[in-house]
Amino acid sequence: MIHFQHPDLLYLLLLLPLFLAVWIWMQHKGKQRLAQFADKSMFGRLIPDASSWRPTLKFCLLLAALGCIILAIANPQMGSKLVKGEHIGGDVAICLDVSNSMMAEDIQPNRLERSKKVVSNLMSQMAGDRISLVVFAGSSYIQMPLTNDYSAVKLFLDQIDCEMIATQGTAIGDAIEKAMSTFGYDDPDREWEKNKSRAIIVISDGENHEDDAEAAAATAAEEGILVCTIGMGLPEGAPIPSYRGGQRVGYKKDMTGNTVTTQLNEQMLEGIAHAGKGIYVRAGNVNADLQKVLDQIDKLEKSHYDDAMFSEYESRYQYPLTAAFILLVAELLIFERKNRKINWEKIIGAKK
């Protein structure tokens, strides 16, 4: 069975029919321009060396060569075999804020949806790390225990919304403690061992009102757990939409009737990251500088947590690349005009 290392590049093959359509249109326009100067029956006398099939053949060869090059870049692989190896990586707990303030639309489409995209981007760049997922508002709970099944994490991630937790607020400290518990901290049935292969990523707007989040981050750091924070929102803030029956009915107001504005509390998130010996980055309307967070995680000492069977493939890009080379050479050897020294029409006719 053929497996492509870079299957997304195969979408480039859709350009081939587009190039074909453009070439057909250009040939048609060329014939129309030529028809303005002479009748079609005179073309043979005016351009005696013109060939009706050579340009078409040359273009088809170029198009086929381009297709082969695209296949080679996508790197077809065959001959998969299972190879036993060590599963080495770190443990990463992602704490995602689902309080009502995460519905603010100062970043599009809103803070929560952008946060979920950030989590997906993080997972797409992780390799070998186990992930757990904690959601929090006024309280927190474990949405997904520690796993290396990223597809399952994404499935649970898609189901997250701001109505999951009835108790409103932002208890970042409690979320950090829940994240530590996914690593086995304070679990009487599991032996706790300090190491440097664990990290917690808190994604929030930083409006913490419930507990001492910096103290929780400092406790995590003492246990060898790195704590990084990602800020969602803009410092100038935005109102919080209010919904009824799935329809927006306005914005949330305080007791005096004034519209509530939620702002990104960067000072709080920076303090949590500092206490957790990690870093803070902000996600605005452009992609967060996630690479800085990933670099911090990559610096952690990786642990061996089980043996695994991996699929190993052998690359076969040489075959389409060779085919492309042959097609390009053939295209160069064929001239657009007829060869006067070799009259193929007479040779074919003689054989008949």
Structural features:
11 helices; 24% strand; 2 domains; alpha/beta; 6-stranded mixed sheet; Rossmann fold; 352 residues; 13 strands; 3-stranded antiparallel sheet
Give a verbal description of the structure.
The chain has a six-stranded mixed β-sheet, sandwiched between helices. A three-stranded antiparallel β-sheet has the order 1-2-13. By secondary structure, it is of the alpha/beta class. 38% of the residues lie in helices and 24% in strands. The chain folds into two domains: 3-75 and 317-351, no CATH class; 85-305, Rossmann fold, CATH 3.40.50.
What secondary-structure arrangement, pairings included, does this model have?
Layout lengths: L2 E2 L10 H21 L7 H4 L7 H21 L1 E14 L1 E7 L13 H14 L5 E7 L3 E8 L2 H9 L13 H11 L15 E7 L8 H10 L2 E8 L5 E2 L1 E4 L2 E5 L9 E2 L3 H10 L4 E4 L6 H9 L4 E13 L2 H16 L10 H8 L1
Parallel strand pairs: 3-4, 3-6, 6-7, 7-12
Antiparallel strand pairs: 1-2, 2-13, 4-5, 8-11, 9-10
Helix pairs in contact: 1-3, 3-10, 4-5, 6-7, 7-8
Secondary structure class reads alpha/beta
| Order of helix and strand elements from N to C terminus | EHHHEEHEEHHEHEEEEEHEHEHH
Report the strand count. 13
- Say which CATH homologous superfamily of the largest domain is assigned: von Willebrand factor, type A domain
CATH architecture type of the largest domain: 3-Layer(aba) Sandwich
Spans where pLDDT lies below 50 across 5 or more residues: none
Question: What is the 3D form?
Answer: elongated
- As laid out across the biggest beta sheet, the strand order is 5-4-3-6-7-12
What is the number of independent domains? 2
Nearest-integer average pLDDT: 84
Beta-strand content estimate? 15-25%
Name the CATH class of the largest domain.
Answer: Alpha Beta
